[in-house]
Structures are given as C-alpha cells and as structure tokens.
Design a protein that fits this description.
Blueprint (H helix, E strand, L loop, with lengths): L25 H6 L8 H4 L14 H37 L7 H53 L3 H5 L3 H19 L1 H72 L1 H6 L3 H56 L13 H43 L22 E8 L10 E8 L15 H8 L7 E6 L2 E2 L5 H6 L15 H6 L7 H10 L3 H5 L16
Antiparallel strand pairs: 1-2, 1-3, 3-4
Helix pairs in contact: 3-4, 3-7, 3-10, 4-6, 4-7, 4-10, 6-7, 6-10, 7-9, 7-10, 9-10
Length: 540
C-alpha cells in the first residue's frame, strides 16, 4: 500500500499532503511499448520484404541495382554454359560423320572456346558486381540502422526503459543488426542468384527438350526428399550426441567443482564410473550419427545417380527415335548428344540451385523478423525529447521556486501500484527540504518528476511558475545538480566523469565544481589526481 503523508501542524516543517495514486489511463499505457517481452504472436511478425531497405539512400539504391544485375547475370550464366558445352559435344560427334573435315571441326571448337571465354569474363564481372555491391550496401545500411537504433534507444524517455530490459536492447543491437545485414547482403544476393539459375535452367531445358525435361522434373522431388530426409536424420542424431556429451560434462563439472567433498567421501571411483557411463551414451549417439550420415549421404547419392541413369537412358531413347533405323529428323527439336547433355544438366543445376536457395530464403525471412522490433523502436518517437535544443522554453533567470500541484503518477511498469495521487508540495528558493518516508512512498519519484524523467498523469510540476513540460528538457536538466544514492562512474578519468555534468566545461571549471562539492581534497590524494582512471563503474 502507498504510504500517506499528512500535513503536520508544526510550521517549522515543510508541508506534506496525503500521497495518493491513480490508475494509469489506457491512453498512457498505449504510449509505452514493451519490445523485450512480447508474446509469440508479436515476435513472429515480420516487416515486408521491401521495408528491409527503408533506410537505403540513393547510393544504396544504385548499388542494389548493380548488384541485382550482377546476381541475375551470374545465375543465368551457369545453366547457359550448358548450351555451349552441348555444342562442344556435337562438335566432337561431327568428326565421325561423313564429309567432316578438320577445318570444320577446328572452326566449331574455336567458336565454342571463344564463347566460353566470353562467358568466363562475363561471369567475373557479374560475380564481382553481385558480391561487392550487395556487401557494400548491406554494410552501409546496417551501419545506418545500428546508428539510428542506438540513437532511438538513448533518446527514449525513462519510462520506456521500465518496460524494456536495457540488457536485451543492447544484445539486440549486436544480434538483430547482424541478422539484418546478413539478410540484405550476401543472402539476398545469393537468393537472386539461385532464383535466376532455377528459372533460366528450367527455361533452357524446356526450350531444348520439353519431353526429357518433364520426365526429369518428375524425379527431382524424390532427389530433394532424400536430401531432406538425410538432413533430418543427421540433425536428430547430432542433437542426441550433444545431449549425451552435455550430461557427461555436467558429471565432470559437478565432481571437479566439489573435489574436496568427492575425496572426503572416497567417491572418486564412483564419479569416474558415472562419467564413463555418460561417455558410453555419447559414444553410442556418435555411432548412430555416423550411421545416419553414411546412410543419408548414400541415399542422396543413389538418387542422384539414378537420375543420371534415367536421364541418359531416356536421352539415348530419344536420340535413337530421331536418328536411327532409318528415321530422319529435321529442325531444332531433334535430339542429339549435345541436346541431351544440355537438358539434363540444366535441370540438374536448376534443382541444385532450388535446394541452395532454401537457406538464403530463410536468412532473408530471419532478417525480416529481426527488423520488426528494431524498426518499431526507431519509428516510435520519444514522449520526452531530451536532445532537441529548439523544443520548449529556456528561462533567462532561474530563482528555484518549486511547486508540485495535485500530481497523479504511476510507473509504466507497475500501473497497478499507486505512487502519487493528489500529491502537492511547495519549496521556496533557498530552502533545504528533506523528503521522508518508507520505501515506495514517492521520494525518488518527486525528483524524477522534477528532472522530467517522467511526466505526471495529472497535475503539474512547476519551476518559477513554469510547468516543466513547457521547458526545454536539455536546458532544464542543466539547471539541476543531482547526486544519486549510488552514483554511476564511467570507465574514464575523474576529470571526464565530472565533465559529463556539463559538456564542454574547461578543466578549471571542473576543478572549481569539485571544490564546491567538497571533493577536491580527496581527489588530489590519488597519485594522478583528476587524471585517475576509475575503471568500469568505478571498480578500479
């Protein structure tokens, strides 16, 4: 229950009135968004794909355009090369036919070699554009996102941190932004590359031989299924092995951390046997994993080579149909060795690219999910802007009269706990006032409202007759000196820690401030004086 302070009759004491607290309004609750403890449905939400690139500037758009051209070009070149290799095979076959000459053969092979060289140069340019442009723009955009995210966090009002764990926020700066960078960089370029390979491979295969393509595509799902099944078996076996080794490690850690007790009870052999038993389980799991890896890999290779066998067998059937036993086929639809080769490997490369696109697509989806919370934080404006120099009034002179009038307040993290309800207090300039009361009665809350860490739900806090909500926040906090119960020191010198109180203060002003705070003498007792490094949180 909130404590109640009643106004004493003694006029020598500062006036206190009853402390009461309101329920937080629905409107106020809506202003505070908790991004660190959302339910599963919230965390499963993702930003639209195009919104991932919301922070791209004109240069980034140029880089993404060039990178996309490179990725699509590199992806198309892979199955397109099969067209040239098919021509090579036909050139080799033409040497055995009637009327063939070495000049025709050399001319045909030289032409294919030149085309392959051109494809190689094009692949170099396309691959460079793909990797360089997408990596560069991802680095630029992630840097921008990281900077905006940290700036958005630091400038949020204190009440926002009451419902958002700062430790989780700092972790998200590293984890989420790395995931976003991966999704809009290398994985996005790979996804475009593999998509181009799949589409171009299927198109080339259908154009060169639709009959063989349809048959091979009917077999592709079985090859993919064997790979997926092998992967799942391997993952399950790996998980069992990790659990077994974790149990063995727990036994070792328990015995070593309590080694005196183990020796005292003569339990050395008992723990050795227990650890050996745990290792046996891990060994058995490792054997199962090896069996699963071998079986899965063998199954996948079997399906691949069965597809080879089926493809070349049917290719031979189509060649025989069009060219043997007196059959004559004219036109571009006739099957030959080069056509069968082109169709088969175009389908194979398309199928392989489809499987390779899966992890890239998953990484892009992960980036969309990671961006949801990050972008929400960036887009949400701070309810109390601490850095804007132009927002709010700056008084020419401050006397120091404080008037807290009928304030109602509850912390965002505990809207059901009433801290202040109808609380009023007047302090004249120059008065020394002590706020007395049990924990949770509102002593620190008064200071927080005065510094405008929070805004009251109702009532007002005034300095020299001006509501603090109408004053410039940065200017207001420069007028107030606050030493907390547990001051926080940063990992720098004493001089710089004091200078944090007023950015840009000279060394002489810092020394003068230390003298006014009666801290000068004990600071000078340190060997390095004001240059003494205090360490992390003053630990040094």
């Amino acid at each position: 229950m909130a404590s109640q302070w009643e106004e004493p009759n003694d006029s020598d004491h500062p006036a206190y009135v009853a402390l009461r607290t309101p329920r937080q309004s629905d409107a106020e609750k809506a202003k505070i968004v908790d991004v660190s403890s959302q339910d599963n449905s919230e965390l499963s939400r993702q930003v639209p794909l195009l919104q991932l690139f919301s922070f791209a500037d004109f240069t980034d758009k140029i880089l993404m355009t060039l990178g996309t051209i490179g990725a699509l070009g590199a992806g198309i070149l892979r199955p397109s090369m099969n067209l040239l290799l098919g021509n090579v095979i036909n050139s080799f076959g033409s040497t055995t036919g009637e009327g063939s000459s070495s000049d025709d053969f050399s001319s045909s092979v030289n032409k294919v070699a030149r085309n392959l060289a051109i494809v190689g140069v094009a692949g170099l340019v396309a691959g460079y554009l793909q990797v360089y442009c997408w990596s560069l723009t991802a680095s630029r955009q992630s840097k921008r996102i990281r900077s905006l995210y940290v700036n958005a966090i630091i400038t949020k009002e204190i009440g926002w941190f009451d419902v958002n764990d700062p430790m989780q926020l700092s972790t998200r700066v590293a984890d989420a932004t790395v995931t976003i960078q991966d999704g809009i960089g290398s994985k996005m370029s790979d996804l475009l590359h593999f998509t181009a390979t799949v589409v171009s491979g299927i198109v080339i295969a259908f154009v060169k031989g639709w009959e063989l393509t349809l048959i091979l595509m009917a077999v592709v799902p079985f090859v993919a299924a064997s790979g997926i099944l092998a992967k799942r078996v391997i993952i399950a076996a790996t998980h069992q092995g990790m659990q077994a080794y974790a149990q063995a490690g727990a036994v070792a850690q328990e015995s070593l951390s309590n080694i005196r007790t183990v020796h005292m009870f003569n339990s050395v052999q008992c723990f050795v046997d227990k650890y050996s038993h745990a290792l046996k389980s891990a060994t058995d799991a490792g054997i199962k994993k090896s069996f699963a890896v071998g079986w899965g890999s063998g199954l996948m290779y079997m399906m691949v080579f069965l597809m080879y066998a089926l493809g070349f067998y049917l290719g031979a059937v189509f060649i025989a149909r069009d060219n043997l036993d007196g059959n004559t086929c004219e036109g571009s639809s006739c099957y030959d060795g080069g056509r069968v080769f082109t169709v088969f490997f175009a389908v194979m490369q398309g199928a392989m690219a489809l499987g390779q696109a899966g992890p890239s697509l998953q990484a892009v989806y992960s980036a969309c999910a990671a961006a949801f919370d990050v972008f929400e934080v960036i887009k949400r404006p701070s309810l109390i802007e601490p850095t804007n120099d132009d927002q709010g009034k700056k008084l020419d002179h401050v006397s120091g009269d404080i008037d807290i009038d009928n304030v109602q307040f509850a912390y965002p993290s505990r809207p059901e706990v009433e801290v202040c309800r109808g609380y009023s207090l007047k302090i004249k300039a120059g008065e020394k006032v002590a706020l007395v009361g049990p924990s949770g009665s509102g002593k620190s809350t008064v200071i927080s409202l005065l510094e405008r860490f929070y805004d009251p739900l109702d009532g007002s806090v005034k300095i020299d007759g001006e509501d603090v909500r109408s004053l410039n926040v940065k200017w207001l906090r420069q007028q107030i000196g606050l030493v907390g119960q547990e001051p926080v020191l940063f990992a720098t010198s004493i001089m710089e820690n004091i200078r944090h109180g007023r950015s840009g203060a000279s060394d002489s002003e810092v020394v003068e401030a230390a003298k006014m705070a009666n801290a000068f003498n004990f600071i000078m007792e340190f060997p390095e004086g004001f240059a003494t490094e205090v360490g992390e949180r003053g630990a040094q």
